[in-house]
Amino acid sequence: MDDSELTSVFLVDDHAVVLRGLAAYLATEPGMSVVGEASNGRRALEELAVLANTDRLPDVVLMDLLMPEMDGIAATAEIKARWPEVEVVAVTSFLEEDRIRGALVAGAVGYLLKDADAAEVAAAIRSARAGEVHLDPAAARALTDALRAPKKQTVSLTARERQVIVAIAEGGTNRAIAKHLGVSERTARTHVSNILVKLGLASRTQAAMWAVREGLVQASSTDQR
Questions:
Q1: Is 13 exposed, middle or buried (0-12, 13-18, 19+ CB in 10 A)?
Q2: Which residues contact 28 (CB under 8 A, 6 or more apart)?
Q3: Does a structural domain hold residue 195?
Q4: Phi and psi, residue 60, nearest 5°
Q5: Residues in a beta bridge with 87
Q6: What pTM was estimated for this model as a whole?
Q7: Are residues 141 and 156 in the same domain?
Q8: Which residue range(s) make up the domain with 193?
């Protein structure tokens, strides 16, 4: 396989046994390559800066959230600020709505629990490489339950976000949305992720349903997808 086809992964966790386990598994996964690891967020930023200087930034970072010196949420926000092309998947033992939302707001495109099986870890990495959101089912349920809370009724979207969610409801792909708005596909993906986080939704399908419920599109529009 050509190097350009490999998905490069950087591992961040303060438990050495977890790092060794992930590295050993990913070494056997077709199309994936581990390019580095770190034991906390601050060290991860230092190592990624070295990789950036040699044009070897990873495609995806698997990021533990609870670590000393700099936690995973802060590190994720800094990674996305400095290297927006690098995607981050949060990996943690905790299932808390605030923590899930914090990771996604910081820029993560995935949220896995540490008891996820190997196949789900690989699926999350591949989804992240494609810029798509991948949530552990329990995390998705937590966000969905939070959507039902009264506080979510006060959420409002910007004019651009309303354009994007209408396009989602009409079946638009990220590429189609990007072309329609005259922006890059990565920017379109970012808009989609921001909308899901802001509304506490777990999927594009839920976003489409929200748009119908709010009267932004007619139900028949979503039926045609």
A1: buried
A2: none
A3: yes
A4: -140, 140
A5: 60
A6: 0.66
A7: no
A8: 150-217
Count of residues in the chain: 225
What is each CA distance from 167 to 26, 162, 164, 177, 204, in whole angstroms? 36, 9, 5, 6, 11
pLDDT tens, 164-213? 999 998 888 999 999 999 999 889 988 998 898 888 777 788 888 888 88
Instruction: For residue 122, give both structure tokens.
Output: 């690989």
Strand extents, DSSP E, the chain: 7-12, 32-38, 60-64, 87-92, 110-113, 134-135
Total number of domains in the chain: 2
Please name the residue that has the structure tokens 């590190």. Answer: 75
The pair phi, psi for residue 61, each rounded to 5°, is -110, 125
Three-state secondary structure string covering 104-139: HHHCCCEEEECCCCHHHHHHHHHHHHCCCCEECHHH
Nearest to 44 by CA among 11, 19, 21: 11
Per the listing, tokens 């890059």 go with 184
Residues 6+ apart with CB under 8 A from 170: 217, 221, 222, 224, 225
Spatial distance between the Cα atoms of 31 and 170, rounded to a whole number of angstroms: 34
Question: How many other C-beta atoms are found inside a 10 Å radius of the C-beta of residue 165?
Answer: 28
Distance, in Å, from the CA atom of 180 to the CA atom of 86, rounded to the nearest integer, reads 25
Cβ-based neighbours of 150, under 8 Å, separated by 6 or more: none
For 43-86, the pLDDT digits (tens) are: 999 999 999 999 999 999 999 999 988 999 999 999 999 999 99
Encoded amino acid at 87, one letter: E
CATH code for the domain of 155? 1.10.10.10
Q: Which residue has the tokens 């999350």?
A: 124
